[in-house]
Amino acid sequence: MKSNRKMITALFMIGLTLFIITKFINQPEGEWVEKNEFVLGTFSQIRIYAPTEAAGEAIIRKAFDRVHEIEKRMSPHIENSQVYKINQLANESFSEVTEDTLMVIQTGIDYYELTDGLFHIGLGSLINLWGIGTEEPYVPRQSEVDELLEALDIHAILIENSSVMIQNKHMALDLGGIAKGYAVDESVRILKEEGIQSGFINFGGDVYALGKKPDKTPWNVGIREPIIESGGLLGRVPADSLSVVTSGDYERYFIEDETIFHHIIDPRTGFPSESDLKSVTIISETSMDGDVYSTALFIMGLTQGLSFVESVQGVEAVFVNHEKEIYLSSGLKDGGFELMNEDYTLID
Fold it and tell me: Cα–Cα distance between 286 and 185 in angstroms, integer?
């Protein structure tokens, strides 16, 4: 009997030791380090679990330096940026660009084909005409819009080796719908290269959950209720090395004569999209996919958007319509989305 008790006690101590060791392994030593900056025209945050505070700050600095570099190259509003020069030299001459800018432009052209033209990197002139998000927004005349619509030929964007030219003076590049996602993806690349296994990036609503949390549980990324001036949550999705990006009509807008004009321009009409949706959230492996597909699917509307997302591997979506109904792509229907707002109805 005493022998059995000794054996039981020994087994208990071994089990306890293994539990403690496992717990220690699952929660590695380190500390959270967080930095916030205003870049890419938005409030941006990087939060990582690093070995030390000093190491974490250095790694985050490296990531933000890369983001600032991307902005200085690809912003259409920064004088002498590569995209600014392309727009200034439209229909005149080619402008040499760096490898990353060239890649983003070429990828934007590829996405145009994938989305049947609903994602368009050549909307710069129309975006400037409307001025949504600036101090002087403007509802243009139909004739003004029509003139710029005639210039929206994706084939007018010419690429020769490492140089780019727009073959139409009425057309301008605006990479805002893809460059922010690229900046998030580049930040993730740097964090991984520096050995970071757990972190969280939020660039103005472009979110990336890196790995799991230190306790090995997935992140829960909140999705905002798509109502103007609402700070409430619609729901949340579990995320482990995934991007979560939302586009909606409540983000940037202005009101004139009691009409709301939001920032998502439909390249078919030149006016803000009259979609039957309030928002689209994309869950994907890259933020570039999230940027592009959240915009394109919003313009598509519910029926076409649902059909489209099922054809794209590795991409899931949450659709919210004007009737406060929520529709999920098939990959989210089994625990991939948690509703947190009783004002909305989840449609099966």
Answer: 6
Kindly report the average pLDDT of the chain as a whole number.
Answer: 92
Residues 319-347 pLDDT 10s:
999 999 999 999 999 989 999 999 999 99
174, 205, 221 — which closes off a domain? Answer: 174
Residue ranges of the annotated binding site for Mg(2+) are 177, 291, 295
CATH classification at residue 59: 3.10.520.10
Note the pLDDT of residue 53.
Answer: 97
- For the chain, what is the HEC assignment? CHHHHHHHHHHHHHHHHHHHHHHHHHCCCCEEEEEEEEECCEEEEEEEEECCHHHHHHHHHHHHHHHHHHHHHHCCCCCCCHHHHHHHCCCCCCEECCHHHHHHHHHHHHHHHHCCCCCCCCEHHHHHHHCCCCCCCCCCCHHHHHHHHCCCCHHHEEEECCEEEECCCCCECCCHHHHHHHHHHHHHHHHHHCCCCCEEEEECCEEEEECCCCCCCCEEEEEECCCCCCCCEEEEEEECCEEEEEEECCCCEEEECCEEEECCECCCCCCECCCCEEEEEEEECCHHHHHHHHHHHHHHCHHHHHHHHCCCCCCEEEEEECCCEEEECHHHCCCCCEECCCCCEEEC
**Binding-site sequence positions:** 177, 291, 295
Instruction: Average the pLDDT over 33-58 and give the result.
Output: 97
Specify if 26 maps to a domain: no
Domain extent, residue 147, equals: 77-174
